Structures are given as C-alpha cells and as structure tokens.
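About this split. The held-out portion is used to measure sequence recovery: a designer receives only the structure tokens and must propose an amino acid at every position. Recovery is the fraction of positions where the proposal matches the reference. Here is one held-out target exactly as it appears in the evaluation file.
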C-alpha cells in the first residue's frame, strides 16, 4: 500500500512540481507528481536521490497497519523517475508517525498523546459540553534512526505540528507550526528564538550559504508557498510569494530541494474540500 502516483478521483490533494534556476521564477511541471499525498517532507539521500515523505490519504490502512503501525511512506526520485518507497520505523510508543521528515540518518515525526483531566477548560481543543472530562493533546517531536534504535525526544508542547529540522553552519535549527504561526527553535536544549506570525507549515533548507525558510501563507485568499532567507540564522528577510503569478490556487505544505542544476518546489494542491 504505497503512495499513489496515478490519477485518483477521490484524492483530495495532488502534489504539483515547479522548477527554477534561481529560486525566484518558477515553471510548473507538465503533470502531477503524486495523488492523495499531503504533509510533505523532503530530504537528500547519500547518493543524491530526492526522498519525498508524506501521508497518503487515498488508501485505508490495512489490518496489520492498524494493529502494529504503518510505515513512513514516500517517493524516491533517482534523477529520471519517481519510485514508491517506505521505511519501517519501530517506535512502540507511537503507532502513527505524524508529519514525517527524513533528516540525516533519522526520521523525525510527531507523537501525539492525549491527556485528560476534569473541570479544566482547554483552549483550542474540542470537547462535548456535557462531558465533564476535557481532553488535550500533548505533542512530542521525536526521532529514531532509520536502521533502528532508541527514540529521541527533542521538544514537547501543545498545538505543535510540522517539524522541519535543518543543520546550518554546524548548528541544528528546527521550525514548527503552532497557533497560526511558525516558531524557530535552536540551541541545546532546543529553545524558541523567534516567531513568524501569520504563516504555517514550515520547511527549511540551505542554499548558497543561506538558511531558507519556506512556509504557506495567505496570498489573495489562497494558501500558497512563501520564502524568507537568513545569512546567519538570526536575522530574516521578509517573506515573499513564490508562485502567486501562476494559476494554481491553494497549494500547501511546500518543500524545495535540488534537481540537477535547478531547484524543485513541490506542494499539495487542494482539489476539493471535505464536507464538514
């Protein structure tokens, strides 16, 4: 049960691709990369292949996946074509690896654990008005080596999503979404050093000795990719839209990686909304 690469009418999201030589002007690919895939992550393998991770939303989990946990799924681009790939991640405490991201020799993911207590209102969490017990989700950012090992916990908090780790000038930086903004974490232990308001779903990468942060923001009523740049990991440029001049509508969860002598931008275009 792999990422779907052929047309599926029930696929809510379609992964689109765009190429650029300068990270400024983007040209759309002729056909989508995948169907029914969201929560994108991107990494580069040791041999230079692109590793696109995500969550597939078309095929239901199998009996064994529901019982023992699903693998991290994705696509590998070898310079010519995309191939389905998956990583079996052994994490007994987390059957679902939310927002997976391959980084160096590990896979990073969210482990959401529900806690409950009585008579304590929780901002942002839904609960029944006639239920005396409120539920809140504490989220842990964790990682585990791809070839196995102990789970490492990097950060914990409420309303945390979309972790994007990157190493810049030998220092670890992690970007996360939460409460309608992006937070920048760095240091040891990780600590929040900056907040970016009004943007979400970050992905960070290094290019031309600069740290680049791509996010989704509101462009003319649609969520689209935007990017800011830093030369030192502290001071940042303003966010600028990347594909606003192209007629693609909403395109979320953007990632960017090298493609030969070009750059490849990918994002998930929402084809229709699920009824509430």
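Reference sequence for scoring:
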């Amino acid at each position: 049960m792999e990422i779907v690469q052929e047309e599926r009418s029930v696929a809510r999201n379609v992964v689109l691709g765009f190429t650029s030589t300068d990270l400024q002007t983007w040209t759309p690919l002729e056909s989508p990369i995948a169907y029914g895939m969201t929560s994108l992550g991107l990494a580069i393998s040791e041999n230079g292949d692109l590793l696109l991770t995500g969550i597939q939303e078309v095929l239901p989990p199998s009996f064994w996946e529901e019982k023992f946990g699903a693998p991290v799924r994705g696509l590998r681009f070898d310079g010519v074509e995309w191939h389905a790939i998956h990583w079996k991640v052994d994490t007994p405490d987390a059957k679902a690896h939310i927002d997976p991201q391959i980084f160096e020799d590990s896979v990073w993911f969210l482990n959401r654990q529900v806690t409950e207590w009585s008579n304590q209102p929780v901002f942002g969490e839904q609960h029944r008005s006639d239920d005396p017990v409120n539920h809140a989700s504490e989220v842990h950012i964790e990682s585990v080596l791809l070839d196995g090992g102990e789970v490492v916990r990097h950060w914990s908090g409420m309303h945390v999503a979309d972790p994007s780790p990157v190493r810049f000038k030998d220092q670890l930086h992690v970007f996360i979404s939460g409460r309608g903004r992006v937070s920048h974490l760095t240091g040891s232990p990780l600590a929040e050093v900056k907040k970016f308001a009004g943007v979400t779903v970050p992905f960070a990468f290094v290019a031309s000795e600069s740290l680049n942060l791509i996010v989704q923001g509101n462009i003319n009523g649609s969520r689209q990719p935007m990017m800011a740049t830093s030369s030192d990991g502290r001071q940042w440029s303003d966010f600028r839209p990347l594909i606003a001049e192209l007629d693609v509508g909403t395109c979320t969860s953007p990632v960017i990686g090298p493609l030969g002598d070009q750059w490849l931008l990918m994002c998930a275009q929402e084809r229709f909304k699920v009824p509430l």
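Annotator remark: Residues 13-270 form a domain with the Tachylectin-2; Chain A fold (CATH 2.115.10).
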